[in-house]
Amino acid sequence: MQYGLDSACLASLQAMPGFLQVFGYPDPNLEGGYGIDRTFQQLIGSLLTLGAFLSSIFAGPFAHFFGRKPALWLACLLTALGTAIQIGTTDWGVVYLGRLVLGIGNGFLVTFSNIYCAEAAPAHLRAVMVALFSEWVNIGSIVGAVVTNATSKMMDKASYQIPLGIQFIVPVLLSVGLFFVPESPRYLVNKEKNGEGRKALQTLRGDSLGHESFELEWLEMVKGIEEEKKLASSVGPLEMFRGSNLRRTLLCFGVIATQTGSGSWFLISYTTYFMAVSGLTIDEAFKYSIMNTCLGFVGVNFGIYLMRHVFGRRSIMMIGSLTQGLCMLAMAITATTSAGTDLARNFLIAFTSLYMFAYNAFVGAASYPVATELVSTRLRSWTVGSAISLGYFLAWLTGFCSPYFINPENLDWGAKYAYIWAGSNFVCGAFFFFCLPELKGRTLEEIDELFDRGIPAWKFKITRTNIMNEALLELQRRDGLETGAEPKPLVEAVEVAGVESGKM
């Protein structure tokens, strides 16, 4: 939500007269009567991603020594501090500092919220729970777009200080809420704190599982982490590029990079301004930005349903890239053939909206679940943190370069800039088709086994794993020792444990 609030506010402030009175310059020839310096525009958009890039680099070592919850508490402190700095100044340099501090906090928020959800969720709900990241991004974007639209006609500092002020909501609520959730059980087991890890898993599962189902999940988790440790020589950044981890790291990096490759960062950062320089009035640009965020929210829920009940992760990502590429291509072609006409204006509105729906339903909803599933428990904070830092670097590059393409005083491409992102989406689709394995229905420990065995991407879906059978046999052995009963047949044991085919 914090990420969505900031993205919506930043996209709108650049077209807000009250903000531009303080940080822009008068220009009667522009819509709204004010312009914005390109360097300032580039830096306020890119410094947040630069800060997130820096914090994501250090996510691995921080989490290795301190855990997931302390990282989230630090993120709350930094985001609140960055927000306060921006509200209290009219100096460009201090704004840059605030954006950088906020970015460092956001990098930790994005990295560890996804890692924690992936490690805490049961297998059949993991994609849904991690995809809630995108749900809350859109809720934050809707709130931010509504608030900035309400203050857009104010001609004083309150026009931008009020939208910035709502960014205190998330760090305050989250810092309190963290007292009521346990540390990640997989992190605790990996640190050889099995007693605390078991207690954390019991807290997370509550009474949703029977005794045998809980024991099965616990044993599978412990056995998987133990097997992984036996194969590993060390834990650290270099381990990400050794053995089977190299393939997993490159896939994780690729999946996160496709968020930028889809063109989402361009539209997230510059939607309102992009519409304004492409022919819409300021009032229309603000209103259609609200509509786009609402469509994105609908898209996320649609995508969550598809991931849970209809498609696998791989299919979702491929469909998304194709749809997003076609939306970008339609925008660019119309801007080329019918520039300045009502047709071009209407196409821009329609296909920007369709793109936001499609991105949030497909790549936006599935990319973080897939990225966190692809990597091993032992290296998850290192690999996901590094991948997200790469994503933020690419986002920073996009944010820094985009104004040069769309600004009237530079290349003045406007909507023709979408040609670049159309081609990029089609390349991403090819990557998903040839390289991405299907992970739906697998526990994190099963995924570890499949990668360790070197199973090709196209065989992941049909390959049987051994770790669940081993955990079931261990559970039967323990129960037999305690009760003196004969072990049950494997199929019957699966049914008693409540394991549903295709969901675990």
UniProtKB/TrEMBL annotation:
MF annotations from Gene Ontology: carbohydrate:proton symporter activity
Gene3D superfamilies, sorted: MFS general substrate transporter like domains
InterPro entries in the cross-refs: MFS_dom, MFS_sugar_transport-like, MFS_Sugar_Transporters, MFS_trans_sf, Sugar_transporter_CS
Pfam families per record: Sugar_tr
PROSITE patterns: MFS, SUGAR_TRANSPORT_2
Main location: membrane
Transmembrane helix found in the keyword field: yes
Membrane-spanning intervals of the chain: 40-59, 71-88, 94-116, 128-148, 160-181, 250-268, 288-307, 316-335, 347-370, 382-406, 418-436
Topology term for the membrane: Multi-pass membrane protein
Boundaries of every Major facilitator superfamily (MFS) profile domain copy: 1-440
Keywords: Membrane, Transmembrane, Transmembrane helix
GO cellular component: membrane
Location in the cell: Membrane
Family statement drawn from the similarity comment of this UniProt entry: Belongs to the major facilitator superfamily. Sugar transporter (TC 2.A.1.1) family.
The name this protein goes by in its record: General substrate transporter
